[in-house]
Amino acid sequence: MVFILDKSSQVTIHTLQRMPYYLQVLQKAEARGVKTISAVTIADELGMNSVLVRKEIAAVSTRSGKPKAGFEVAPLIRDIEDYMGFNNEKKTVIVGAGSLGRALLGNSEFSEYGIHIVAAFDVSDAVIGRKINGIEVYPVEDLEKYCTDNSIPIGIITTPVSAAQRVADALVRGGVKAIWNFAQTILNVPEGTLVQNENLASSLVLLSRHINK
Amino acid sequence: MVFILDKSSQVTIHTLQRMPYYLQVLQKAEARGVKTISAVTIADELGMNSVLVRKEIAAVSTRSGKPKAGFEVAPLIRDIEDYMGFNNEKKTVIVGAGSLGRALLGNSEFSEYGIHIVAAFDVSDAVIGRKINGIEVYPVEDLEKYCTDNSIPIGIITTPVSAAQRVADALVRGGVKAIWNFAQTILNVPEGTLVQNENLASSLVLLSRHINK
Asked: What's the pLDDT score for residue A173?
C-alpha cells in the first residue's frame, strides 16, 4: 500500500509548525524576566490572530491563561517542549550522504527536538567510514541489520530516485515505522509504515505562485 | 509586520504538493502508450481517494474526464505543468552557501519547476568566487544591487539566525517579493513581502509523534 501523508487531515501540523516560534517568543520573554504573557502579546510578536494563539496554546497545554495577566511563561515553555517531544529521544538513520543528506546531518536543530541521527548510510566508498558532523557513514548493505540491532524507529531517505524503493524496503525489514522521503518518487510500504514525502520544490512553487497573483 | 504564511489558509497547498505525484503517474501511463486514465486508477496508484483525485484535478484543469474512459493523459499533463508554472521562469537567489545552501543549489528539481537559482551569496572568502553546481557565489555586500539590477522576485535564506534579518532587509531593499526562510527566526518584513518559514525539524517531529501514537 502506498500511503501519502495527507497534511490536510492532520489537525496539528500547522500548530506544530508554529510551536518553534511560540517558544522563541516565550524564551525571549523569560530572558527579560517576564513571568506572564498574554495571548495578544504573543500574537502581536508573531503577526498572528490572538484567537488562534489561544486555541493553539490550548491544544498543547492544559494551562488556561489568567484573565488580564495571561499565561505563566515558564510552565508554558515546559508544556510546549513536552508536546514537541524534546524530552523523548528518537533515534533516526539517514540514507544517502550526498549534499542534502549532509545538510540534514549538520542540522543541529533536530537534536533540540529530541531527534538524534545516529548513523548515515551510503553506497560510495568516498564517504563510507568517514564521519560527518560526528556521525559515521556505513555501507548501505548494513542498513537493515543496523536498524534491527538498534531498534531504529525513523529513517530518512535522501538517495536518488532509483535507489529509494530498495532503501525503503531495507528500512521496513529493519523495523522502521516512519520514513521521511526526500526522493521524488512514490514508495511502496506495508500498512502500518508511515511515509512523509518532502518536496522542497513545491514550497518554492507555492511562493512563486503567490507573487504572481 | 511579521507575516507567517499560514498554510492552513492556503486551499491549494495540499493539492500543489500532490501534483508532482499525479504527474509521475500520468507520465508513466503516457510512456506505456495509455491515452486516457480514470480518477480511480490514479487514486489506486497513489493510495488516495478517487473523490479527492477528481476534485484536485478539477482545481488545476478545466478538462472534465469522460464517463468511463476518464481523463486524456497528454492534455492533463500540460495543464498540470502550466498550473505548476513550469513554463513561467522565476529567478531566485540563495543567501548562505553552507551545507543546506549547497544542497538547494544542487537540487535539479527546482529548474524542472521553472525556478532558476541564478546566484548565491555568502560572507566566506572560502566560497566567494567559486561556482557550486554552475552557480557563482558572490559576496553578500553585492546582494541588494544584484537583486535590483536583475529584478529578482524570490530570495532563499539559509544563513545562521544571527545574519537572517540583515539579509532579509537587503533582499527587501533589492525588490524581492517573496522569501523562503530556513533560518529559525522570525523575520520583520514590510507589508507586501511574503515570508515562508521552513522548519525541517518540525516535519520530523510530526513523524515521530505519529509513531508514538
From this structure: 97
